[in-house]
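Quick start: load a record and inspect it. Here is ITIH4 inhibitor:
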Amino acid sequence: QAHILFKPTVDQQKINPELDETLLNGDFVVRYDVKRGATAGDIQIVNGYFVHYFAPRELPVFPKNVIFVIDRSGSMAGRKIEQTRDALLKILQDVRPADQFSFITFNSRVAEWKSSLLPATAENVASAAGFVQTLSASGGTRNHLDTYINRALLTAVSVLDKAERLPERSVSMIILLTDGQPTSGE
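Running the structure step on this input writes:
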C-alpha cells in the first residue's frame, strides 16, 4: 500500500503567472516499481514507450549475444522511429562488457550494421550509439514488409549461427523492433 500526497501551491496552479485564474494544467505522473518475480525478463509498455528488463536482480547475469532487427520502413517514420532510437540508446547504456551485439535494419532491403557480433566495449557502444542516432525511416511498403521481416530475421539467425568464440553460458537473442504485421507469405 502506498499513499501519495500532492499539494500544489497557488503559483503551480496558475495558468499564467499574471492571471488570477487557477487550474491544474498538466499531467500528474507517478512512476514506481514493485517487486518483480524471477522471470527471464519483462516488457512493459507505457505511453508508447517500452522497457525491457533483461536481467532481473534475482537471477545470475549471463553474457548476452543480441542482434537488434530494426524496421526502417516508411510506416515507422516520425514518432515510431524516434521511440525506437530512444529505446536502443537506453539499452546501449545498460549493456555489460561481457555482452556482444549488432544491428540489422530493413525496409525494402536488409542491411547489416557490422558483419558479425561486436563485444560491448566502450568504443563499440559509442560507435553503436552514433549509428542508432542516424536511424531514419523510409521506403518499404506494407505489401512487401513480410518478405523483409523474414529476410532480416533469417540474416540475424545466420549471424548468430556463424558467431565464433561466444562466451560460455551466454544467451543469444534476437529482438525485433517493428510496427508492421505480415500481410502475406512467411
